[in-house]
Amino acid sequence: MDLRVGGTYHYGMKTPGGGAMWGLFTYREIVPQEKLVFVNLFSDENGGITRHPGHAKWPLQMLSTFTFEDTPGGKTKFIVRWQTLDATAEEQQTFDTMHDSMTQGWSGTMEQLAAYLARLR
Question: Residue 43: what pLDDT?
Answer without folding.
Answer: 94
